[in-house]
Amino acid sequence: MRCPNPFFHKxxxxxxxxxxxxxxxxxxxxxxxxxxxxxxxxxDFALYRFPGEREPHLVLQTDGEADAVDMQHHANMHIxxxxxLDADEPSGFVFAPFIATDKLxxxxxxxxxxxxxxxxxxxxxSTLCHTxxxxxxxxxxxxxTHSIDESDAYKVAFRSFKNQLDRKNFQKxxxxxxxxxxxxxxxxxxxxxxxAMDTFPNSMVYLVYTRRGGRWFGCTPELLLEGYGRKxxxxxxxxxRVWEEGCWNDKTIxxxxxVSDYIEGQxxxxxxxxxxxxxxxxxAGHLLHLRTDYTFQLPTESSPLPILDLLHPxxxxxxxxxxxxxxxxxxxxxxxxMYYGGYLGPLNLRAETHIYVNLRCAQMRPGGKALFFAxxxxxxxxxxxxEKDEVKAKLQTLTAALVLD
Length: 405
Hints:
Helix content: 25-40%
Number of helices: 9
Number of domains: 1
Shape: globular
CATH class: Alpha Beta
């Protein structure tokens, strides 16, 4: 069986998905064994599956901790659209925060093992030792147990954000929220990952563990950048409504247009020729989004790093103007985003890159708990109750769709 993702078959890449004799029975057995061995080993790893694929990929670092990498530094060493990969280019699975700091850096899992398909993952993990590490996160964080309905911090932040939008200091600002809740998925990640693969076929599903960042699980529909050389792909994804609601309103259509205009401006700055598809409605679990796809070609072969630097953070998770919005969020949001709103995926792995925005995610905590993250884009047309309900719907995406028996 071949991997559905066409990018894994370019330039002579040899990533083969495993085959099974009895797919359903065998798949659940190897899933439970593989994921449990990975979690018990205490090694840094990323297990992930791209949209449309049937089997996942594994990047495993067999010793030491994931490296902290300065993505900005590496991006500045390249001219967008004008420099090919060099020997010092980061390669592996990158797990980057919304805003990188010394205490919260971008992490790169070294690809000591990089395989695809359950059979190959089973073979590579069959000899892992069990160390059963107890600490799930090295990140110090307060316990945010209040729901969004009870949160004074969210209400105060919304007023601050809306005031800036009403004054036309920003076109858009994204306000995030997080809540610590009991969740049966924490501690049962082997079952959780398999259920998510079935429930979210149009999302990147991942389970990442690093000793510095902790254990994270997520299902993100938003591609940030994928491709290699001259040919690349990105998307504009903004606006949210639940499946049962009717048409898109003017506020949501405008919000998506802001993100699309930003991406097109960045691509034009790169001298890229692009083809646009959309906007159209895209489904992720029980939520719908407005989406526009961009396939673009650069004048010459390029490293992905300067392109990532130009695109991240998009207005879909930050705001406009970008730098001013990022600084405003850092000072006034009142919520520690950590790795939510950042990006993750294989970077320069066998010369290819597949990076997604880290949405719909949770950081696993001890005692069967998880810290859930969500956010919403605000414009001058935003209303408090509508935005609060949207964030609530996003927070429920993982818990409602992934109820374990």
